[in-house]
Specification:
Chain lengths: ~160, ~160
DNA sequence: CGTTTTCCCATGTTATCCCATGATGTCCCG
DNA sequence: CGGGACATCATGGGATAACATGGGAAAACG
């Protein structure tokens, strides 16, 4: 499988370990890493995650900027300094660092949501709320879809 | 791991020793040096650090400048003259020279921030302030990435 | 010689490895 | 079509290794 797909809620044990869903695991491994790269979203209270390929793309984009420019340093300290490469153990589990758990309000359970080339990790109830809201707004935004259908595509989702 | 990633705050002991984060250590060793190269930033009160690879890259960048220009001399005096190759001891610790600590205002704790090919060393509170600013500006700077990218947006779409 | 640096060891904490269990799902064969 | 053997997976626990940190002793330096 080549992209992160589906939704899974797993428990976090006393040691802070949580199983990365097996299907996500195989995506990361197919990209050449026995682990995933995670960082706090600056869009909301959840964690962004991806395989090494997406993470390397970010690195490469940053390297196009001048190596000592303030812009590069600021972007990198947010995108890389706040990120963590989480290798899974022999059973496919990862440990979410304290800062990431705090950012997402995660305590004893985590919801993994596949989004294609990347995925998100949510506190389960927070995700439910987000999803309900998204569903509600989708109705209102439905018009937008029609109206943009004839326009060139934007950056967004996949 | 091939690039410096994540953020770690370690203590400086009475002898001036501080552990280089284990993950940074393995990056440097993978580049062929049991140590790191550090020099004062000319952008602010923090220390720049890297493995040997990026350090050699800096040399190359300097060599492209006019050899007798004052600009080149000034850059070189900071990037090379003020730089130090800090080898880690048998436990993976380094000693930050007095001038570097003074430049960054570091006393008893140091925050290591991975930025990909290089990293920075900050006084913890100073970094917190910088990070708050960086987070604020990251969205604006995000355009820099998008415009240079043939790739999907980084911030996390929604 | 006294000061600083380097090496070695001790310790507590945290992460990692290894094995066990139960639950679920898959496949094969009757 | 049904049932059971087997694989996969999430989860838990104990043992082990890695790491950050502190301190002492030996070595280098001026």
């Amino acid at each position: 499988m080549e992209s992160f797909r589906g939704r899974f809620t797993n428990k976090i044990d006393a040691k802070g370990r949580v199983s990365l869903p097996a299907k996500f695991r195989s995506v990361a491994i197919a990209q050449g890493l026995s682990g995933v790269v995670c960082f706090p979203s600056f869009q909301g209270a959840f964690i962004e995650g991806s395989g090494p390929r997406f993470a390397e793309n970010i690195d490469r984009m940053l390297q196009r900027l001048d190596p000592f420019s303030p812009e590069r340093d600021m972007l990198a300290s947010v995108l890389i300094g706040d990120s963590a490469e989480l290798m899974f153990d022999s059973d496919g589990r990862i440990i979410l660092p304290e800062e990431l758990r705090a950012h997402a309000g995660i305590t004893d359970e985590a919801t993994f949501v596949g989004l294609g080339e990347k995925f998100q990790i949510w506190e389960p109830k927070a995700f439910e709320a987000f999803r309900a809201e998204a569903l509600e707004k989708a109705r209102a935004y439905g018009d937008l879809l029609k109206s943009t259908a004839t326009l060139p595509p934007v950056g967004g989702a996949q």
